[in-house]
Design a protein that fits this description.
The chain is an alpha/beta fold. The protein has helices at residues 39-42, 46-51, 80-89, 96-106, 113-119, 142-154, 176-192, 217-227, 239-247, 290-297, 341-347, 358-367, 402-415, 427-432, 437-461, 532-539; strands at 21-26, 59-62, 127-133, 159-166, 196-204, 234-236, 260-262, 278-281, 313-318, 330-332, 352-357, 381-386, 420-425, 464-469, 505-510, 518-520, 553-555.
Length: 557
């Protein structure tokens, strides 16, 4: 494909072209003090450990949370979506929560096409709000839901039903009860002011509705049955009672609560979604909303028997998949991520191989490429997805597909067909989320073995490696008090941390192809994930576009 002058990158004055580059993203692999809750430290990880000897010239730390990835504050932990956006785009874009905060604060959310569309149902029908009830700020935020409910009621919504999904993953297990009580108090106030507002159904996020990457459609079906059909194995008069009761079951936790519906005195569900209703999914993060959005929006649908497909006015908080245009209506417009590093490199003849297993395949392709599906240039790119284990929790098979990813990357490197081989190794994150410390240690060891496999291949072709991560997780598996000591709950039990962290992540460069004199700069204040794109472009022998975040490397004579 001919390169138009707009896409042409200047040659780097000191760095050659033509070296094979392995770009490895270890998911959920932050840097933290060594202790018994740091699974990375406790795992045998010789490949990753060996890189630290290069500090500070070829190993350093970068920011992967808060403003470094476009999130509102330094209290916002990073996530894989915003992390891969920043890694691929080379610039920082206002993201999910921040975009929604801006739209809610300005009232713009209520003036947009999406809200106007759903509000056409307010006069005669019900507004349903579906999403994760949490203040974790990773997928959704309770305060945004509260503002959305208040703003809708002020603008004519007479009947509101909320379908809640409990968290316990991005926030502490057990915090669901407090969130439900907070929401319930708001709904009581609305009822006193003549709005028929109540919680209609619920369930735990990992068991009801919020599956991703088509891993398990049964999860979505359980939510559909409760939200649309008004059917669930558990029926309660109110949601606080529902959550408290279901949490008492043996082994119960917020993430995996079974589906429930709220019923009236006659035992009838108070809020099934029916023809003419409006539905808003209020999560701002895309990955766990796409499957549910397909069920709500696609007339032609075969993933499970929906029994009935109500004619509704549906909008997402954001558009969850730009390529699929899903959903077709949304309340807040997405960040316009243009001119990603992948697109530049494709225009400049750089061939790319990208690979992960299902749970992170979208990150190393779609999110990397600025929320865009498909190839920039089919002749130069190959994307390979290895199916993830389904139907089990990731701590059951903590090695996941790390070795298969390593093998695919190794083969791609040795084939000589690709200038860049890019992978995401998910273990630290996916197993870290289960809160199983022993399994997470096994997961980190498996990830390191995959890294070693890729390093060995780079050694053979005299290439370069770049290893980094998208955010922290496995490096700290316990909640801490203000002094930094492990926190205990009321019963004196350790509070396990299943969420991402605010820790920095490592980045390392090396390999026989790395030019002499290349080292990390010391003059950047707080570099973050967005600085990686320019760095990688340099290693491919190009100067990055002038508006990209500055490169992390310099060449000293």
């Amino acid at each position: 494909m001919a390169t138009s002058s707009a896409w042409k990158l200047d040659d780097h004055p000191k760095l050659p072209k033509g070296k094979t580059i392995a770009l490895i993203v270890l998911d959920g692999w932050g840097e933290s003090a060594p202790d018994q809750y740091n699974c990375i430290h406790n795992a045998p990880t010789p490949a990753m450990d060996s890189l630290k000897h290069g500090a500070p010239d070829t190993w350093t730390l970068i920011k992967a949370h808060g403003t470094a990835v476009g999130l509102p504050s330094e209290d916002d932990m990073g996530n894989s979506e915003v992390g891969h956006n920043a890694l691929g785009a080379g610039r920082i874009f206002a993201q999910g929560a921040k975009l929604c905060d801006q739209a809610l604060a300005s009232g713009k959310i209520f003036q947009g096409e999406g809200f106007k569309y759903v509000s056409e149902s307010f006069e005669t029908n019900t507004l349903h709000l579906v999403g994760l009830l949490s203040d974790g700020g990773v997928h959704s935020r309770l305060d945004q839901l509260q503002l959305l409910i208040k703003g809708s009621a002020e603008r004519g919504a007479k009947r509101i039903r909320v379908h809640i999904l409990t968290d316990g993953r991005d926030v502490l297990d057990g915090s669901s009860v407090g969130f439900v009580e907070t929401l319930e108090a708001d709904l009581v106030t609305l009822r006193e002011n003549g709005v028929d507002a109540q919680i209609a159904s619920g369930g735990g996020r990992m068991y009801v509705t919020l599956d991703r990457y088509e891993n398990d459609w049964e999860v979505v079906k359980r939510g559909w049955d409760a939200q649309v059909l008004g059917e669930a194995p558990h029926k309660f008069k109110n949601a606080v009672e529902a959550v408290k009761t279901l949490r008492k079951e043996p082994g119960a936790n917020d993430q995996y609560l079974p589906p429930f519906v709220i019923v009236d005195d006659s035992g009838k569900a108070v809020g099934p979604i029916v023809d003419g209703d409006a539905v808003v999914t209020f999560n701002f993060r895309a990955d766990r909303m796409v499957m549910h959005a397909k069920a709500l929006e696609y007339e032609d649908f075969d993933k499970f028997d929906r029994v009935r497909f109500p004619k509704i006015r549906y909008a997402g908080m954001l558009q969850y998949d730009g390529e699929l245009k899903l959903p077709s209506r949304y309340l807040v417009s997405p960040p316009e991520i243009d001119r990603t590093s992948g697109e530049y490199l494709a225009h400049n003849g750089v061939s790319t191989f990208a690979c992960s297993e299902t749970v992170k395949f979208g990150h190393v392709t779609f999110f990397w490429n600025g929320n865009r599906s498909g190839y920039f240039n089919e002749k130069l790119e190959e994307y390979v997805e290895i199916p993830s284990d389904s139907g089990i929790s990731f701590n059951v098979q903590p090695k996941m597909k790390a070795l298969e990813i390593g093998e695919k990357a190794r083969d791609a490197i040795l084939s000589g067909k690709f200038d860049q081989v890019r992978v995401n190794i998910p273990n630290g994150d996916m197993v870290g989320h289960t809160g199983d410390i022993e399994a997470t240690v096994v997961a980190c060891e498996a990830a390191d073995l995959a890294v070693k496999m890729i390093f060995d291949a780079i050694e053979q072709v005299k290439g370069i490696y770049v290893v980094t991560a998208d955010h922290g997780n496995a490096e700290d598996m316990v909640k801490r008090d203000k002094s930094g000591k492990p926190a205990l709950d009321k019963e004196g039990k350790l509070q396990i941390l299943t969420s991402h962290t605010l820790k920095p992540v490592p980045i390392a460069i090396g390999g026989p192809g790395l030019s002499k004199g290349v080292r990390f700069r010391k003059d950047l204040d707080t570099p973050g994930l967005a600085n990686v794109a320019a760095t990688v472009m340099n290693l491919h022998g190009f100067v990055a576009p002038s508006d990209y975040e500055p490169t992390l490397i310099e060449v000293v004579e």
